Queue: 4 jobs
Job 1
Amino acid sequence: MFQTEFEFTLPKGYLDADGLLHRQGIMRLSRTMDEIVPLRDPRVKTNPAYATVIILSRVITQLEGLDEVTPAVIEGMFACDLNYLQQFYRRINELEPAE
């Protein structure tokens, strides 16, 4: 069976407004629309790097204890967790050469 969802554990974890830490999550494989939709967003037009925030919020289907993963959640993550998620995204979508 072809795997389309992958579990991950954030190095630090997302700390929400109530002080709760969220580390376990699930990311699905990216679809073409996940890459196209952010290009229409005005935040991406003024800051192309923001596309990463939108893409990750679309492909992370679960983050323990949260109802949804929004761009605001991604914005609130520690830099090391964002870096981890970017690398994880590239690895599961085979955007990096195999080592």
Job 2
Amino acid sequence: MNSYDVAIIGSGPGGYVAAIRCAQLGMKTAIIEKYATLGGTCLNVGCIPSKALLDSSHHYEDAVKHFEEHGIDIPGDIKVNLKQMIARKQAVVDQTTGGIDFLMKKNKIDVYQGLGAFKDATHITVTGEKTEEIEAKNIIIATGSKPANLPFITLDKERVITSTEALKLKEIPKHLIVIGGGVIGLELGQVYGRLGAEVTVIEYMDRIIPSMDAGLSKELNKVFKKAKFNINVSHKVKSVERKGDEVIVKADNKKGEEVEFKGDYCLVSVGRRPYTDGLNAEAAGVKLTDRGQIEVNEHLQTNVKNIYALGDVVKGAMLAHKASEEGSFVAEIIAGQKPHIDYNLIPGVVYTWPEVASVGKTEEELKDAGVAYKTGQFPMRALGRSRASMDLDGFVKILADKETDEVLGVHMIGARAADMIAEVVVAMEFRASAEDISRMSHAHPTFAEATKEAALAATGDRALHI
């Protein structure tokens, strides 16, 4: 039997980062993955493939709608080759997961292919092509999440699908119904909307991206309505039925009236659930919450002292970068170091176009907490860079403490917001004031100038270009 200092169950962004950091810190490390490729949901059927399709569909939309205005004439009809688009997406996935294989070899991490299940608190049975058992002083659970579903919906994975199937469709839907107006549903809805599908979004809450600042939701809603998306908020879905190639969705609107939607595909995108199937956690004495999450303390340690858990399988936002931070964190805790994570400063991003990004407190949260704050906001369309690239939608909003001027939250929607958010995360880690950001030189012309202008506005209506 092989023995290790640390064994990690799951090879997603949390698991593989934990493995690398453990190896860097001198621990003999193993990682266990039930699927044929490493990288978990994010690399295989999540972040990476969805961004590949978003980029491909964005190129197509630009060619159809904007090239002529840019002085680019393409003779003949521009057509979508969906098969090639999906093939390119898969090539990106293969290259990325292959990179994780390389990193495991480089760091001398043993990889076990198969289902990892606890035998007890220090032994794991790996069931794959062969069954074997390993021993570890410390074990990290990083088994991630799976798409959630509503109890009355039957997912046939042909017409009634999850995000996994949406990444490999063989045809462009004529009418895609998306149940859930969150990140995943909107991103994949935009992919197929750009390619010619009619898209209907049905959201239970009173706005899309309901967990983010209300101003972002309002602006993104305008963008989707311009793209002729049919957005239905405050709708409670009560049935989904497939009849041949047609899917019929029935819901109650906010007045309690029944409404019906018909399409040829229905994407069920109602969040994700922690995945512990087959883990046999009870054999190790590990406690789960009522929601199926692994219970952990502030050190991400379970009730069994040598077993840790991280990422989507524990409490908090289900984000790849949150899981990666926790991977490094746990490795350093095991090594006796004193790392920290400020969960308030983990950004959230929606990779639609325009992109949406947010960090810190929303206006709603500050109001609920009774915090006195001030606001500075600047529209993207006032930037020279936005006009040059024809990316005019969106804004940057900075929320700062009314007395101290410390930045409490930043919310942005616009071109490259996913990259722009990093600047304010750094600033907020160092507890910067709005004035600090306003006095930093930002290159011109850039989208990031909107952040400086919003900071100027927050310091006392000092924005220069509006």
Job 3
Amino acid sequence: MNILKAVLEHEVYPALGCTEPIAVAYAASLAASVNPGPLVALKIVVDPAVYKNGFAVNVPGTGGERGNLIAGVLGALLGTPQLKMEILKGVTQAHVEEAHAHMAGGVASITYDSARKSLFIDVVLTTAEHTSRAIIEGSHTNVTLVELDGVAVKRGERPVEVGEKPYRETLGSMGIKDFVDMVEELDAKDTAFIREGIFMNLEVARVGQTLHKVGYYVADLREKGFLVNDVFSSSKILTASAADARMAGLSYPVMASGGSGNQGIVAILVPYNVGKYFSIPEETIIKSIALSHLVNSYVKCFTGDLSPLCGCAIASGVGAAVALVYQQRGANMEQMTLAVNNVIADLGGMLCDGAKGGCALKVASSTDTAILSAYMAINGHGITQQEGFVGKTAEETIQYLGRIGKLGMAGADDTMLAIMLSKEQLCPN
């Protein structure tokens, strides 16, 4: 099994909008594709993390509407599952108005199943003639069941326990040195695909810089002399602006990493911008981004796809830091270990409270820490196993972090969801 190709195929892909509501739309579209006709009922059940992550984020094509439910209804109305994570490309105002009518009339509903501990989306769609169902499990595009009137039309493999994806069992058994060896063998097809992701995410960042949001204010601080015009500020402006555009629901796709658009922004744009700043050869920058993708996905073998911990901090931030060490020092495992330990020691406790505009702040923090952590590591300084939950190897530190996220913070998502739901009841608008 070629793990690099598996990661690029399954975890690095264009996504239009936040991946959780888009995955809900994809599942609803799958159910609609085998059961066309006017909606009589649409019932959606998701795991708590999907519910949380899609709770407050803007949905593309809706003019600022938020949440999983409208995304699911739009997916059902569109019925074009072949678009996968770009499912909402075809949304029109007429679709939005029809979705509102279904939601106001009680036709569509969404709940979460607190017993579900990994990514889970179950859509049951009823028309006058039939009832269909679609289930996605383990990852945003892993379809495990599509059925019509109780008869399976498609049945996929259920995800395995380790990381919820079949190839992740192998990925999780490897180490960062293995990933460095893989990127040295990067072929022309994968190189072109990674380059496509750079251009895609740069375009989103360009659009995001026109918004008066986090990226704009970082740039404003630089213009006013509060920040130096250097690689730190330029990288933070770039990544925060891209996250601003994505979280605002603008209709521009982002190349995701580890199934997350914001993680794709950090995993791709930080190595790209820092590499360009230091005049690193393009071939090396491309390989470093491939390494960033691999490390990002490796971290999630232990933390899970939708952790109570912020993936931009503890997954893509780690991947970006390793990529920066690779650019400057090649396969220096001692320095890569220091870089991993530095990022996790700094941002290891950053909470994920769902996708929303504030994620751009976390993206900026991850960017800053990734660069600083790599710089310190390259100069021989880093957090060691004598401190806190840091291990003696990068892999051990990542595994410890996974234990903290899955065991130590097992109730965090439920607690955050309770807070978010209570706020909605107090301030429904």
Job 4
Amino acid sequence: MNMQNLMAQAQKMQRDITNKKEELEKMEFVGKSEWVEMTFTGGRVIKDVKIIKSGNIEEDDKDILADMIQIATKDAFIQINKAMEDKLGQYAGALDGLM
């Protein structure tokens, strides 16, 4: 394989990766817990936070609410990581021979 073909393949792969990352960043992911629903972009930017617990949140519930926010965030990040793996995983081994 000559150097020009190799460079052309690398540039195509870079464009493909960039396009898939941009596509992923436009997607939305909703993380949920019992009390909270959080919406993130694929770039891990918070778009929306909803408290879905009905009734009042008592003073003693603040720690639980914080835990529910963490659970919802983790849920959304797991979804984002999976989508990233689905979209970009095919490129993970492709760069081994080039580096």
